[in-house]
Amino acid sequence: MDTITTVAAMQAEADAARCDGRRLALIPTMGALHDGHLALVRHAREQVGPEGHVTVSIFVNPTQFGPGEDFDAYPRTLDADREALLASGAGVDAVFAPEAREMYPFGLPPLATVQVAEMGWYLCGASRPGHFDGVTSVVTRLYLACRPHLAVFGQKDAQQLAILRRMTRELGFGIEVVGHPIVREEDGLALSSRNRYLSPEERRQATVLSRALFAASHAAGQGERSADVLRSAMREQIALAPQARIDYAEIVDADTLLPADTLNPQGASGGRYLAAVAAFVGETRLIDNVTLRVGDSGRGD
Amino acid sequence: MDTITTVAAMQAEADAARCDGRRLALIPTMGALHDGHLALVRHAREQVGPEGHVTVSIFVNPTQFGPGEDFDAYPRTLDADREALLASGAGVDAVFAPEAREMYPFGLPPLATVQVAEMGWYLCGASRPGHFDGVTSVVTRLYLACRPHLAVFGQKDAQQLAILRRMTRELGFGIEVVGHPIVREEDGLALSSRNRYLSPEERRQATVLSRALFAASHAAGQGERSADVLRSAMREQIALAPQARIDYAEIVDADTLLPADTLNPQGASGGRYLAAVAAFVGETRLIDNVTLRVGDSGRGD
Question: Based on the domain organization, do A105 and A248 belong to the same domain?
Answer without folding.
Answer: no
